[in-house]
Amino acid sequence: MKPPLARDGTPRASHGRTERGPHGSDTAPPAPRAKRRNAVMVLYDSPLYGDWAAWMTCFWGLVMAWAPETDEPSALPGWLDTLLGVVVIVALFGLLPSWLRLQLRRRRWRRRQLAPGPAAPTPTGTVHIGPVPSPQSAVPPPRMPSAPPASAPPCPVPPPFTAPVPDEHRTAPGARHAPPADRTAGAPAHQDAETSLSSSAVLAKARDAMPHPVARAVRTLQRAHSGKEQYEAILDAAETLAICVSVTSAALLRKHGDGAAPENEKALHLVSMLRGALLGRGSATFGTWTNWLQEVGRLAGSHPGAMPAVPAPRPDDAHGAPLIEHLNALRVERNRAAHGDRPQSAGESALRVREIRPHFEQALVKAGFLTRTPWLLTATSSYRPATRTFDVVARDAMGDHPDFERRKFTWAEPVATNVFYVLDAGAPVILSPFVASQFCAQCGQDEVCYAAGADRTGGPADLKSFARGHTLHSPDLGDEIRALPVRGGGGG
Asked: What is the average pLDDT value for the chain, to the nearest integer?
């Protein structure tokens, strides 16, 4: 009996079927079943009759099942005692060795994957070291069909298909091809914003020369990675800048308000307005500080001689808009976000940052007087009787470094310790009750805080940390806020 033929004339594979002779007898024995490792319960090989681990498991189970009963008394029934014994013995002497064999096989398989491939003989008889070629690559190429008879006309070979080139991409004969497009041109916009923020000269100068709350906020802005983080950081830094400008101006105005001159009375009137804002309902917001700076700018425009020591709030100069306009633009954006119109995507966040960044950088430039009036946190003060002066050691609270550098001063007037001062023309001007150093129980350390409000009738002052926004309370500063000068419109 001839074997079945395929279409190409070659014998067709039997696929496991045996060929029978003319009398129906098998001419070849049946092929044995291929052994598949760990095919049964992931522990035993298939077929089970060829796996020693399966035989060992069955053996120990049967031994325990037919073991003779002992005369020792037991609280369990006989059948349950036997069942538990079978489970324990099978697990220890059957399942556990099979599991160990599985782990050993996996380990050997991983080693073979990491080892170089075995040597394979090449057609010329040489030995090739490397991975074994796949079966597909070992199949010889198909035989080419014989040439058609001479009488048949040759079949033309069609040209390879090419996509049509648009007119805008065609190049004239002899012209050079355009260089490939830059892959970074399509990069997300927030990556460009991040790069420009980290390399900004204005922000770098502010980190070195501004008071610590502003410098730290600018540092947080430059370290922000995503567009959303940059958006939140630039608004927080803008509010911090407005607070620092306000409290520094208020301290200088209170110092220069002592006297009987009309200009001094106007300066005290502004301090009284800030007192009324802090004693009002609720906590001070971004708008509280910008509204007060707006009044300071109006007074500076109408009476330039009223505030010789406060150059920042002056509204007009030869280099663009005043400080208060930039701060108001940032305040409007903060209110926009607070009322639910926050950016919803990274692209929108980057776009908002590009829109408000010029206002923030210009506000830093306009508030440059803060770099000339440094903040100091006094540490020690000792009186020198011979010269009637005070030797003071103070920490320089400028720059973004959290550890303030110690500096020594000799002043003619006494100062309190652990209190913030601003240095104006070499003389200390107290910043309390607007700024203070308070211990924060949540942070476990001293934090630079600003006065956010107090009750008009009595009680402690509410302080907020510049760094984390934690709310602290100080009874002494509450009394100091209520003791600020009161003028018309400043609150009772």
From this structure: 77
Average pLDDT on 381-400 reads 94
Mean pLDDT of 58-75: 76
Check residue 117 and give left, alpha or beta (phi > 0: left; psi -120 to 50: alpha). Answer: beta
**Token pair listed for 3:** 């074997």
3-class secondary-structure state, position 352: helix
Check if the beta carbon of residue 29 is closer than 8 Å to that of residue 16: no
SS3 content of the chain, % helix, strand, coil (to 5): 45, 15, 40
Give the per-residue SS3 of 395-432.
Answer: EECECCCCCCEEEEEEECCCCCCCCEEEEECCEEEECC
Local structure of residue 490 (DSSP, 8 states)? S
Helical axes 189-198 vs 227-256, angle rounded to 10°? 40
Only one residue has tokens 């610590």, namely 212
Reported as a single tens digit per residue, the pLDDT across 415-469 is: 999 999 999 988 999 999 999 999 998 888 899 999 999 998 889 999 999 988 8
Domain residue ranges of the chain, discontinuous segments joined by + = 34-65, 212-371, 376-482
Q: What does the pLDDT look like over 78-131, one tens digit per residue?
A: 778 788 888 888 888 888 888 899 888 888 888 877 765 554 444 444 444 444
- CA dihedral for 320, 323, 324, 328, sign (positive or negative): positive
Q: How far is CA 151 from the centre of its chain?
A: 77
- pLDDT of 149 strictly over 50: no
Sign of CA dihedral 250, 254, 260, 265: positive
- The answer to whether the beta carbons of residues 395 and 446 sit under 8 Å apart is no
- DSSP per-residue letters across 213-280: HHHHHHHHHHH--SHHHHHHHHHHHHHHHHHHHHHHHHHHHHHHT-SSSHHHHHHHHHHHHHHHHHTS
β-pair type (445-454, 461-465): antiparallel
Query: What's residue 267's pLDDT?
Result: 84
| pTM for this predicted structure | 0.60
What is the average pLDDT across 10-17?
49
pLDDT at 11: 53
- CA 22 – CA 303 distance, rounded (Å): 127
